[in-house]
Here is the input.
Amino acid sequence: MLRQYELVEKVLDYDPNADEAMLNRAYVYTVQKHGTQKRASGDPYFSHPVEVAGLMTDLKLDQATIITALLHDTVEDTLATIDDIEAHFGPEVARLVDGVTKLSKIETMPENERAAENLRKFLLAMSEDIRVLLVKLADRLHNMRTLHFIKKPEKRQRIARETMDIYAPLAERVGMYEYMREMQALAFRELEPEGYATITKRLEQLRSQDGGQVDAIALKIKQRLAEAGLKIEVSGREKHPYSIWHKMSERHVSFEQVTDIMAFRVLTDSEEDCYRALGILHTTWQFLPGRFKDYISTPKTNGYRSLHTSLMYENSMRVEVQIRTREMHRRNEFGLAAHWAYKQSDKSDGQVGWLRDLIEIVEQSHDAEELLEHTRLAIYQDRIFAFTPKGALFQMPKGATAVDFAFAVHTDLGLACVGAKINGRHMPLRTPLSNGDVVEIIKNPGAAPQLSWLAFVVTGKARAAIRRAVRLKERDEVATIGSKLFDEIAARVPAKIGKKAIRSALQRLGMDEPDDLMYAIGAAKITDREVMEALVPGCTAGIEEDEHWTRRERAISIRGLTPGVAFELATCCHPVPGDRIVGIRRKGETVLVHAIDCLELASGVDTDWIDLAWGNRSVGAVGQLSVTLYDRPGTLAEMAGIFAQNKANVTTLGQTQIDHPFTTYDIEIEVQDVVHLNRILSALRASDAVAQAERQ
Here is the structure.
C-alpha cells in the first residue's frame, strides 16, 4: 500500500501545481473515516481506496480524480455524506464521488434490479464526466485482484460475471486494454477454474518446450526491419488464457488448433514507418488473407489505432503481428486515460461518443432486465464497419443488420425504416452487414417499428428503441379500445359525464391523465364498477358484485388497430374480416379476438366479453385451411397455383396426414376477408387435385 507521502510525491512528479495540502487532507480523511474497518483479506479497509488512487496516479490523472479515488467509498461505507465531501473538498470532487457511489436505500430490491439501478446511475454520471468511469474501472480492477479473499463462492461468481459482462467491455470501449485484459483474466479464473487451469498448464508446457522461440522470432523480425533502415522496437508474448479460451469457444476448436498463440508487437517512430514495416513483413513471410486489419486509417470507436496482420512463419507456424507508433501504443494500452485531455466544455471526443447511445438505452429501457441486456449489447466488443451513401462511418457489432444500422445513424431514422439498400441492392432488413458495406436506409415517416424486428437486431440501442416504440403503440391502441368502452360505462351512470367528473374520477383512482384511465379500462386493470363509482360515487349501490353488465348497443370497431398490439387474433379459430367476432378482455393483457362460433368460447363463459366489429376496409388476416390432396405428381403444384391465381400468400404449410391415396395439409394463408377466403375454398373444391378442403 502506498504511504501518504509516496502518493503525494507521485502526483507532484507529473503535476507540480497540484494542491499538496488537499491531497494530504484527502488521504487522512479516508483513513479516519474508514477507521478500523477491515477488508475480506484482513487488510485495513482504507488500503483499497489508497490503491485505487495509486492506479490513478499511474495514469497521471488530475488532482480531482486522485482525491475522488481516495474518497470513493466514504459515502457508501462510512457516516460521511456528499455534503460533507463538498464542504471539505469542493463541489467538483463531491459530484465525482456521488457518481461513483452506489445507490443507497435499495437493499430490498431483487439482485438484478439493484444491479440495474446502480448501473443506471453510474451510466448517467459517466455521461456527465468520464472521470467517473476511470475511477470505477480502477475500483473494480483492485477489487478483482483481491476477489479470492471473499469466502462465499456465489458472491465471487456474481462479481466476476458482472466484471466480465459490464466492466471489462467498458474498459475496452474506452481503450483501456491493460485493465480489460487483467479483469478478463481474473474473472475467467473464477468463472471457469477448470478451463483456466488447463490452458495455463498447456501454456507452461509450451513455454518449457519452445526453447526461447518467442524471443527468437522477435529477434528475427527486428533484424529484418532494421536491415530496411527502420528504428523499431519488437516484443513478443503469449496470448492471455482468456483470449485463447474465447477463441476456442468462438471457433469450436481445440487448444492444438489455435495456431496463433504467439503475438508480436512492432513499435515505430511514425505512421509511414508502420506501413513500410508492414510491406517488409509481407514480402519476407507469407501473410494470411482475411487476417489483415487497418485500424490506423479506420480507428476503433475507442480510438484504438494499429495495423494487425497474421504471418506464416517458418515451419508453418502462424503468428500475429501488431504494428503501431510508440504514441499509438501509449494511447492504446490505457486509452482515454493515457492521453488525458479532459475538457469540461468539450464532450465531442470520438472515444466517448458511444456514451450517447448508452444514455438513450437508460432512458428507453423499461425494467431492470432490459437495461442490463441492452447495456451488455451496447458495450460488446466485436465490431464491423459500415458506411452511409455519403461516406459517414459507423462501427457496429458483428451480426448487425440494416435495422441496427438505421438506429445507429439516428433513432428517428430507425423508427421510420421500411427498407434498405446494401451496396446498391434492395435487401431484407434482417440481412447481416459485412465490413465495408454501404447502407442506404429507405424510410417512411408514417412507418413504425415491428415487434418481429427483435428477433434479429443485435444492438442494445435498437432493441431498446423498438421495445419502447412497441410499448407506446400498444398503450395508445389499448387506450383507444378503453375510450370506446368508457363511453358505454359513462352511459350507464345516472348523470351526464363531463370533463369535471372525469378529473374528479382520476383523483379518486390515483391517476394523472385521462389516457391513464382509458388504458386501464382497455387492459382490464380496472372494472366497470370501479370506473362508475369513481365517476359518480354510490351509483352502483344495490348491484351484485358478480352481476354482468348488459352493454354494447353497437359493436366496437377494431379498424386501424394493429393485430398483436392492441388485440390478438385467436389461433383456435383464425377469424378474418367478415366473420362475426367478439373479444375477451384479460387483465393486464391484450384483447383476444374469436369468431362468434369458436368452440373455445365455451370455456370463457364468465369472462369479460366485448362485442367487436372489423370496420370498413379492415386490414386482412390469416385464414387456416385443411386441404386433402390426391397423392399423385403435380397436385401440390396445382393447389399452389390456385393460391397464386387468387392472390393469396401462403405463410405456413405442413403435412399432417398420409393415407394413400390421400395427403392432408394444414395451411395458413393471408386473405383480405371472409369472401376472399370462401372464393379460395370454392376454387380448391372445384379442382381435380383436391379431395377435400375445409376451413379450420
